[in-house]
Design goal:
Elements lengths: L9 E2 L3 H7 L10 E3 L4 E2 L5 E3 L7 E5 L8 E6 L4 E2 L1 E12 L2 E12 L6 E8 L8 E2 L5 E2 L4 E8 L14 E6 L13 E4 L6 H9 L5 E6 L5 H10 L4 E6 L3 H4 L2 H9 L2 E4 L4 H8 L3 H11 L3 E5 L1 H4 L4 E3 L8 H6 L8 E3 L10 E4 L8 H14 L6 E5 L3 E5 L4 E6 L2 E7 L15 E9 L3 E3 L4 E2 L3 E7 L2 E3 L9
Parallel strand pairs: 2-11, 4-13, 15-19, 16-17, 16-18, 18-19, 22-23
Antiparallel strand pairs: 1-9, 2-5, 3-4, 5-9, 6-7, 6-10, 8-9, 10-13, 12-13, 14-17, 15-24, 20-21, 23-26, 24-25, 25-28, 26-27, 27-30, 28-29, 30-31
Helix pairs in contact: 5-7
Length: 467
């Protein structure tokens, strides 16, 4: 089976399938929508692959062609252009000839796997329908609605490709577990925080964890499986190419995981190899189905809606304050767009590497370039974690602090190429045990005003403003 990234969305029912679904009748009420080959899931979506996907409007031979239509919309509510073709089907049965007409609806272009909404709009004839699937119901506007998910054909037990470097600790047998997430584990790099992993893994419910990286080895396997414990398995996969990021084995392991953790490394390679691939799609899908996602250092960097991509190398706070448009200030959209981190950009090793100024620069640039003055910057110290439970309560664990930065006056006073950055933020400094609700950002911590003027911050030490 050809597992292309793009799948042709063909609304077609084969002659073989129709041989079991044909209704031979002289009644005009035989107008019919058939979605044979779909598999109904508990989340309300009908799932299908390219091979067994089918939708057609069938009606009796010789009848006036109904003006019923099939419309398709993607997950962003954008309409997909459809092409309708009328076909005549005739064949011989034991009890005589059976002939009917049908209109086959086909998308004009190839569609990427994902979730879509099919809408059947009843025509002027208003004939009743006979359907083999469960529709969400009549919506009051002469339309029937059903939600579908197109996925790449992934066989039941795909083998890992030869070029994949991966390590499995624990059981290789999948167990059926319902995770209690979605929860998020955001770590600032350096030594990992045991307490944070314990809290995060509680929502994994003894299931399987997949660790993603583009370099390194299996350092998390023994740590998570033996030192922290309580899970079925840990598998580390080095996904260092787009080919691997689209591999069926990789997609299946991520789809079956109750926890996905992005290790530290190089966020540039994460974006280059994982963006617009099955890896990115499965990270987002995992969060949607209640699994748990986390990351540290570079793995943390790519989880926000926006990300410092570091494709030209790192950028230092003094460089960001001197010229917020210097060539090292590379900002992009992150991976996945997890709902809990919408409107967020993250930074790690925060106080340890003096990154307050550059995070202010990131916020200023996003306010000017993207007109997103609402973005929140989350800076996390080394040996520190922010654990966000399924209810949105985020708790600081570890040894350091978490810094929440918001543009104080909307847009910065000055953010121009070749000029000193002039801006101000409200900073909430959360220490161990402090909490914040996400996405409302309600916290008992008090805001501290931090300004950037002529390349310097005021107060001079924003990490401990009262000192």
């Amino acid at each position: 089976m050809n597992s292309r990234t793009w799948i042709c969305f063909v609304l077609l029912l084969t002659t073989t399938l129709w041989s079991t679904a044909c209704i031979c009748t002289q009644s005009r009420e035989s107008i019919r929508i058939d979605l044979s080959g779909f598999h109904e899931k508990s989340d309300g979506y009908l799932r299908t692959t390219a091979e067994d996907f089918s939708v057609a409007v069938q009606y009796d031979e010789g009848d006036t062609i109904p003006d019923d239509t099939i419309e398709l919309f993607d997950s962003d509510h954008q309409s997909v252009e459809m092409v309708a073709t009328r076909e005549h089907v005739g064949r011989r049965q034991l009890n005589g000839n059976c002939a009917f007409d049908r209109t086959v609806f086909t998308s004009k272009d190839l569609l990427e796997p994902g979730r879509y909404r099919v809408i059947h709009r009843r025509g002027s004839a208003g004939m009743p329908l006979e359907n083999d699937i469960t529709w969400k119901g009549y919506d009051g506007s002469e339309a029937y609605v059903v939600d579908i998910e197109i996925y790449d054909p992934v066989w039941e037990n795909p083998l890992p490709p030869e070029e994949l470097e991966h390590y499995i600790t624990g059981s290789e047998e999948k167990i059926e577990i319902q995770p209690t997430g979605p929860s998020l584990l955001l770590m600032g790099g350096g030594l990992d925080v045991d307490e944070a992993f314990v809290a995060w893994l509680e929502h994994v419910q003894g299931g399987d964890v997949v660790v993603l990286r583009t370099s390194g080895a299996d350092g998390y396997n023994d740590y998570l499986y033996h030192d922290i414990g309580g899970i079925n398995s840990v598998e580390t996969m080095l996904i260092d190419s787009r080919t691997l990021a689209n591999d069926p084995y990789v997609a299946t392991r991520l789809r079956d995981a109750e926890g996905i953790f992005l290790a530290g490394g190089n966020q540039t390679t994460y974006l280059q190899h994982w963006r617009d691939t099955k890896v990115e799609r499965e990270i987002g899908a995992a969060f949607e189905r209640g699994a748990n996602v986390g990351g540290t250092s570079a793995g943390l960097a790519v989880l926000g809606e926006f990300v410092f991509s570091a494709e030209e190398g790192t950028v230092y706070s003094d460089e960001a304050l001197e010229d917020p448009y210097n060539p090292y200030m590379t900002l992009e959209v992150g991976l996945g767009a997890l709902p809990a981190l919408s409107g967020v950009i993250t930074d790690s090793h925060f106080a340890n590497r003096d990154r307050f100024g550059r995070l202010m620069g990131f916020l200023a640039r996003l306010a000017v370039d993207e007109e997103r003055s609402d973005v929140v910057g989350i800076g996390i110290d080394e040996r520190t974690a922010l654990v966000i439970d399924p209810d949105g309560q985020a708790t600081v664990m570890g040894e350091g602090a978490v810094y929440l930065l918001q543009n104080r006056d909307g847009e910065p006073t000055r953010c121009e190429p070749g000029e000193w950055l002039e801006t101000a933020v409200d900073a909430f400094i959360l220490t161990v045990g402090d909490t914040v609700m996400i996405p409302s950002w309600e916290t008992e911590s008090q805001a501290v005003s931090v300004e950037a003027v002529d390349g310097a911050l005021s107060p001079e030490n924003p990490y401990e403003p009262g000192m």
